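Friendly challenge for the regulars: who can give me the structure tokens for this chain first? No prize, just bragging rights.
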Amino acid sequence: GEERKKERREMVKELREKNMKSSAQSSHFSRECSICLSENPLLRATLIECGHICCLACAQQFALNGRKFKCPTCQKPTGYVVMVEENEEKEEKEGEKEEDMGETREKKRRLDEAFTEDESNKETSNFKSKKARLENEETFEDTTNENKEIEGKENN
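First reply, four minutes later:
Bragging rights claimed.
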């Protein structure tokens, strides 16, 4: 009697430890599809009757012949619902894209400013060279007119 009770207690203790270990092992989070083993499917489905999760493509494949099918994990007849999840990686990438877009906009703004300054400098430079040419022409005309006046006075 007493020895049998002791064996039973040890067996219960052992089973509890095994149960705790298996619960701990199965409680880790994973997005992996238990059917096709895709590591990170974008869309997943929850099987209605048992709560098992797989990728949407696998659920659709199993449900191809009808609405109800057997869960590949536990064989319960079930249907599925599409899970609506926030995709953190997608959000991070979108955030990175926004940062990249901001950097790109800033670079474009600086280039536009530099171009505008350059164009402004070119315009100023063109203006100065035109002004200098005109001034030279006026000086040339003035000189020519003066020469004609002098020649006219000399001829009279």
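The mean pLDDT is 74. The two ends are 157 Å apart (CA to CA). Your move, everyone else.
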